[in-house]
Specification:
Imm5-like, mainly alpha, single chain, 0% strand, Imm-5-like domain-containing protein, 175 residues
Length: 175
């Protein structure tokens, strides 16, 4: 049996392009808040289902929110993000949980690296798809789930988007 893909979607997918176009209109703070909130609300539970006593992802989310609120310094948050990334590496036997950990860690990373916002889509879609249908479905099934989930992600960003944002993030997607 082949290993499941780490990420779902492609930068050429219409739903990813649409999401990228919206992200580019928003400030770094709005993008980070959207990523962190979406990961917390829709993806963290996938990891927690498999590892209920592991709080590393929750700690990274909380620290990132605290940084956005000016309560903590970035070096402390970076340490917790590294712990969340370690959780992802350690979850290799559970593709849904591993993808969820990657999505959450990358969402937390957006507080200082805005381009990681797309990782929420790629890893998050994998987490949701593998949680919903497992790892043995046809590619079309995963593509459909990724499309649907990215549409939900875009709607969540639109719900908090600042119209005519005066300070949109400067993003180089293909660096």
């Amino acid at each position: 049996m082949p290993k499941p893909r780490k990420m779902l979607g492609s930068v050429d997918s219409p739903y990813i392009i649409s999401l990228m176009n919206l992200i580019e209109t928003q400030s770094k703070t709005t993008i980070a808040k959207w990523c962190i909130d979406y990961a917390e609300e829709h993806i963290l539970s996938i990891y927690k289902k498999a590892y209920p006593n592991d709080n590393r992802l929750r700690d990274a989310i909380n620290a990132s929110n605290d940084w956005l609120d000016g309560k903590v310094k970035l070096p402390m948050v970076k340490k917790l993000i590294l712990e969340a990334r370690a959780a992802a590496r350690e979850a290799e036997e559970n593709p849904a949980a591993q993808a969820a950990a990657r999505a959450v860690a990358q969402a937390a990373t957006t507080i200082h690296t805005t381009t990681q916002s797309l990782s929420l889509a790629f890893y998050g879609c994998a987490a949701i798809a593998y949680d919903r249908v497992g790892i043995d479905e046809k590619a079309e099934v995963y593509e459909q789930i990724a499309s649907e989930e990215c549409t939900k992600m875009e709607a969540a960003l639109r719900a908090i988007a600042v119209e005519n944002e005066k300070n949109p993030a400067k993003i180089n997607w293909y660096c």
